[in-house]
Design brief:
The protein has eleven helices and ten strands. With 289 residues, it is an alpha/beta fold. 38% of the residues are buried. Bound molecules: S-adenosylmethionine (SAM).
């Protein structure tokens, strides 16, 4: 790794700023929400009973995606229980604020746990009365866990109900993210498993003979501004892609030039309505037990 570079995640305030800009510049959130609406409608239709449904969200962030999941369930089930595992206090506060303003969710029972998934799994391992869930989702979160394989297995084996579904959304293993990560894996800072893609998830599911359906969701991230060193938006988007803190100020010039050139190449991006966009496609895993 180039020594002047620091992982983005060493700076939580900057990380939040970068994530917020990413959401502005990409269609990812809407793509995920549209897909979830459709998939969950089918899940609800297939369920025989509509009494209680129990949902476990791992790394739920500020709750916008969870809210969409819950909207699909509240009118169909007489009871909805939603447990949230999220280590960041600021995110939990935003989540609470979001649901307070949403009267449709007034009947949902929320249970917030300010924990990492590893802490949660450890505590539920010690606590034998831990309960099972009908829907477990891990949306753009498995990059941060200590052990992807163990997390998936434990949740599948001991937390998911029969006929339940586990939903994992991760950057695609057959698109630009894979190529980008491979090219810079020894140059950019590595934060635990953050170079993982859907291929790593698929390998775990195959190894353990867990049945799943994989879908690729096309998504994009506008990167025009990344080529203007004076643009604040560009700097934030750049940091999102490289997962590096203040890339433009800290990367050696030759690396910065190389990154810019590579981002413009067909390996990473294409033109969409006259804007250069990074191919931000996602792999979705629908794991039915
Ligand atoms: C990219 S955000 C995704 C948020 C949400 N799932 C969504 O799709 O909008 C990742 C979230 O995972 C949380 N996170 C980070 N490390 C975690 C861990 N070890 N266990 C659980 N969540 C974690 C972060 O605080 C953040 O809110």
């Amino acid at each position: 790794m180039t020594s002047s570079l620091r992982s983005l995640y060493t700076d939580p305030t900057r990380t939040l700023e970068v994530l917020r800009e990413f959401i502005q510049q990409s269609d990812e959130r809407q793509v995920i929400i549209n897909w979830l609406k459709n998939a969950l409608t089918q899940f609800v239709e297939a369920a025989r009973k509509h009494e209680e449904v129990r949902v476990l969200g791992i790394g739920s962030g500020s709750g916008e995606v969870d809210r969409c999941v819950l909207h699909q369930l509240v009118s169909k089930y007489s009871r909805v229980y939603n447990r949230v595992i999220e280590p960041d206090k600021m995110q939990i506060n935003s989540y609470r604020k979001l649901i307070r303003s949403d009267s449709e969710l007034a009947s949902v029972e929320f249970d917030f746990r300010q924990q990492t998934s590893d802490q949660y799994l450890e505590s539920s391992c010690n606590n034998k009365s831990s309960s099972r869930f009908d829907i477990i989702h891990m949306i753009q979160v498995l990059y941060y866990v200590d052990d992807i394989e163990n997390t998936i297995l434990q949740l599948y084996d001991t937390h998911l109900n029969e006929n339940g579904v586990m939903i994992i959304i991760h950057v695609s293993g057959s698109r630009a993210w894979y190529r980008f990560n491979k090219r810079y894996e020894n140059t950019l800072p590595v934060f635990r498993h953050d170079n993982s893609t859907g291929l790593d998830i698929e390998a775990v599911l195959e190894k353990h003979h867990i049945k799943y359906q994989r879908t690729i969701l096309p998504s994009y991230l506008i990167i025009d501004e990344c080529f203007n060193k004076d643009s604040q938006v560009g700097r934030l988007v750049f940091d999102y892609i490289t997962e590096t803190n203040h890339t433009v100020d800290t990367a050696p010039n030759d690396l910065l030039q190389d990154l810019m050139q590579y981002l413009k190449s067909p390996d990473c991006s294409y033109l969409r309505e006259d804007r250069r966009v990074f191919e931000n496609d996602l792999d979705v895993f629908w794991i039915h037990k």
